Amino acid sequence: MKNILYILIAFLSISAATAQTDRSKAPKPAKAKKIQLGESQTFKLSNGLTAILVENHELPTISFSIQIALEPVVEGKVAGTASMAGQLLRTGTTTRSKSMIDKEIDFIGASLNTSQAGIYGSGLKKHQDKILELMADILYNPTFPAEEFDKLKKQTLSGLAMSASDPNSISGVVAEVLRFGKNHPYGEPVTEETVNAITLEGVRQYYNSWFKPDIGYFIMVGDLTLAEGKALAEKYFSSWKPGKVEFSNYADPKPIPVNLVAFVDKPGAVQSVVTITNTVKLKPGEPDILPASLMNSILGGGVFSGRLMMNLREDKAYTYGASSSLRSDKYIGSFTAGSQVGTAVTDSAVNEFLYEMKRLQNELVTAEDLRMNKDVMAGEFARALESPSTLATFALNTIRYNLPKDYYATYLERLEKITIDDIQAMAKKYLRPDNCIILVVGNKAMAADKLARFAGSGTVTYFDRYGNPLETTSVAIPGGMTAQTVINKYLEAIGGKGNLKGVQNFTMKATGKIEAMGRTMEIGISQWQAEGDKMCQEMRMGEMLLTKQTFDGTAGWIEGMGGSKKIPDAEIAKTREGAIIFPELHYLNSGYEVKLNGIEPVEGKSCYRVEVKTPAGTVQTEYYEIASGLKIRVSTVDEMQGQTAETVTDLNDYRKVDGISFPFAMKQSVAGQVIDTRVDSIDIKTPVDPARFKK
Asked: For a FRET experiment, which of 22, 24, 159, 296 has its CA 20 to 30 Å from that of 101?
């Protein structure tokens, strides 16, 4: 009974307290407290190497890194050297080949990587000496093997070829060129020409110039004591010889005086990659860092909570995502906002980006917006603290940028003090809706002209995929020249209509090369066609069939390692069009829509650009060289797994076979993948066995 009485009294007390709480108002946030960060310990070796240790004894694991405090360097005609040097570091030493390093690391279940800025290793504590032994061997004795250098150069060129058809990659490169300029380290692009100019001696020179303990940091995180850390640092890195490092100074890029609208053409593209960007003077540790970051979070840094996302995605349905970023830098930082939108709404999307930037400058944000984004940033900061490596990064930044010792400990206090007026002040200081770069990579014919109204000059400026300006003076189509004239000239150039109509059979054997994961894969391609719109195509790797497609004029099948399936009825019309030996013979017939849209350069050759829409609905852009009349490029946009993808096929090396010219070299770029195809043989005389076209 007594216990029951105590429980009743406690219940009544809780009820009374609850009744007195006003739940109609949100509770006021508690006062932000200074964070008690875990300790990081720093010491220096006699050769100038700075060591940082963050102890974490929860698990028997460790991670080590040698980091070089790189300064920006203009590489000029050999841009890409630093990146290649970093990747080659791990490919061999005077005592170990790449395969030996791989085996030793795999045997102990560790990881070991290198970059232009250092060497990184991690694993179990019991293997710490083996990991450091390998790291020290790579640091002291790299050999940069010639065969690995040649392989990496080939991979790099393959990557550039793949990115040539990727609008996001193009946008990233051109944005840096326009923002910083090609004479600044942050703005010089890596191109096929610069990669081909890189030498092994240049790679070694980069390593010898920059890998010095004077500008190096040895960072240790994990199950180590200070005494252990000092012993390891001395054992493995005290013999690293110091040396003089030459630094260069670069003038800051000049701000854009008025809005520049820059356009990179991707013919046939159904989406535009939109980027709004400008440089900012914002260095790490400056008082503006936190309020400027909070301002950017409200605009688009918080992604789903950002105004750009709410406007362009939730309200206008222009895109799946829109965001912004504000990057501080010791020399020159940047602001960037962007999205991928439908071609038809490109100008409308640009308008909304600028509107939201100006709204932050002209209107005070609400208290709710401020509170929500403070909470988001506080949460992100707290999550970052869960990783011991974060404390190591804090310690490194504190040293490199001469930050106050309590800079990170007071993060939440400083965040909480930011006001609504501070947000507006940061927007006015760092957002430049009236003197920024508005870059669009997309379909020039459909989107470019509508963007001129945003340019300070009133005109759109065109660039290639490396940020080189293109001739803006449009070349007039000669009088009397039509799409029909272009097509007829092409048919005549490859052999004449009479000869083409006489071809009833076609057999081709070719070899395709695909660069993937640093390896070159070869595939055998065989294609048979016959009158009546019949077609069979096989792709094999050795004797193994990868895929086979057959079409007998009315029905078709696709076979592969996953089995066989019939081509859906909805795809029959497109399949039939693809089975025609010379489809251009039909372009001027009813059902096809063919339009001459202009003159444009393709790989330095002036070409007529012809838009073709087939009866089945396929839309493609074809480029016919003016001088020869030959077709040298085809661009097609298709649906692939619910996404639109552009396929660009370059046609070269035309050769005559029985009086008719065919391209013997084809390069096809689709979804970031590049296939180089060389035709081995073409036969247009031998009849194709009808059984080829059966399932």
From this structure: 159
In whole angstroms, what is the distance from residue 633 CA to residue 625 CA?
A: 9
Query: Domains in the chain, please, with CATH?
Result: 40-237 (3.30.830.10), 260-462 (3.30.830.10), 483-693 (2.50.20.10)
Contact (Cβ atoms closer than 8 angstroms) between residue 189 and residue 279: no
Could you say which DSSP state residue 314 is in?
A: I
On the question of pLDDT at 545 being above 70, the answer is yes
Type of residue numbered 61: T
Partner residues linked to 326 by β-bridges: 335
- Entry pTM: 0.81
Tell me if 196 sits within 8 A of 80, measured CB to CB: no
Q: Crossing angle for the helix pair 367-384 and 420-430, nearest 10 degrees? A: 80
Residue 112, CA distances (Å) to 86, 135, 136, 147, 150 in order: 13, 8, 12, 21, 22
The residue that leads in pLDDT, 8 or 210, is 210
What single string gives the DSSP state of each residue in 335-403?
A: EEEEEEEEGGGHHHHHHHHHHHHHHHHHSPPPHHHHHHHHHHHHHHHHHHTTSHHHHHHHHHHHHHTT-
CA distance 54 to 267: 53
Looking only at Cα atoms, what is the longest distance across the chain? 112
Calpha distance 290→426 (Å, rounded): 10
* Structure tokens, 133: 């032994």
Q: Which two tokens stand for residue 311?
A: 């406007």
| Three-state secondary-structure class, residue 436 | coil
Residue with tokens 């356009």, as numbered in its chain = 263
Contact 267, 444 (CB under 8 A): yes
Cα–Cα distance, 297 to 305 (Å, whole number): 8
